[in-house]
Amino acid sequence: MPVTTADKRAAFRKMHESGCFILPNPFDVGSAKALQHLGFKALASSSAGFAWTIGRADSRVTVDDVCQHLAALCRAVDLPVNADFEGGFAVQPEGVAANVARAVQTGVAGLSIEDSTGDKDKPLYDRALAVERIKAARTAIGDSGTLLVGRCEAYLWGVADLKLVIDRLTAYAEAGADCLYAPGLKTREDIAAVVKAVAPRPFNLLIGASGLSLAEAADLGVRRISVGGSLARSAWAGFMRAAKEMAEKGTFAELASGYPGAELNKMFG
């Protein structure tokens, strides 16, 4: 029986009710299918991972690019897909709302809206505007069942102010965010404090090259774990090692460490 978009959205919401799960980030259709093959129950797109596949830097893609990518991911797998929708590709709330409505039409089961401006001199939108942007996204989602994630980007932009993060995340929850996310948190104490502050809303934790295990995050009350562009960077690491060896040495030893083609054909067959 085909899995419908409504099925995916309902399943995704159910996953946020208890426990802790890994929400890995594919960067294209092939990696999404591979993650489904490995048994993951939901996926999240990666703005950086996708951008690199089309030869662009992170945050240098258009809303058209991203919506096409999201639609392709949703068609490719039977799993719920949470969209990394950056800052909604607009500054003003009405623009965010229009773009969120487009994202919902791709079939995503969830999407996140960030509060970063991209300006290192003023990295975060004013609090009031940031809240209005979340409210606009909530209105645009309507009764579709798509889950809204409110993100505070303070730590990623060097604003290591836990009080500010908690204040913003709780405001985003009041504005309609179903799940909260503050990438860049490092210590158990900070993570536990945010989890407690946003409860009963679920909290998403970003884990990259190091950090807590699934069990350790669960003990802190984290509901879901994503890895951002880390899987994409891991894939690029193997590619660049082999390509640099060929370019610089004229040798091919790194190619021996590639994943077996027969296994890939079997997985995608």
Helix content estimate: 40-55%
Question: Mind describing the biggest β-sheet?
Answer: 8 strands, parallel
How big is the Rg? 19 Å
Please report the first level of CATH classification, the CATH class of the largest domain: Alpha Beta
CATH topology name of the largest domain, in short, is: TIM Barrel
Give the CATH H-level superfamily of the largest domain. Answer: Phosphoenolpyruvate-binding domains
In N-to-C order, the SSE pattern is HEHEHHEHEHEHEHEHEHH
Number of strands: 8
Mean pLDDT: 97
**Second rung of CATH, namely the architecture of the largest domain:** Alpha-Beta Barrel
Q: What is the approximate shape? A: globular
Class based on secondary structure composition and strand pairing: alpha/beta
Number of domains: 2
As an assembly, this protein is single chain
Total helical segments: 11
From the N-terminal CA to the C-terminal CA, the straight-line distance is 20 Å
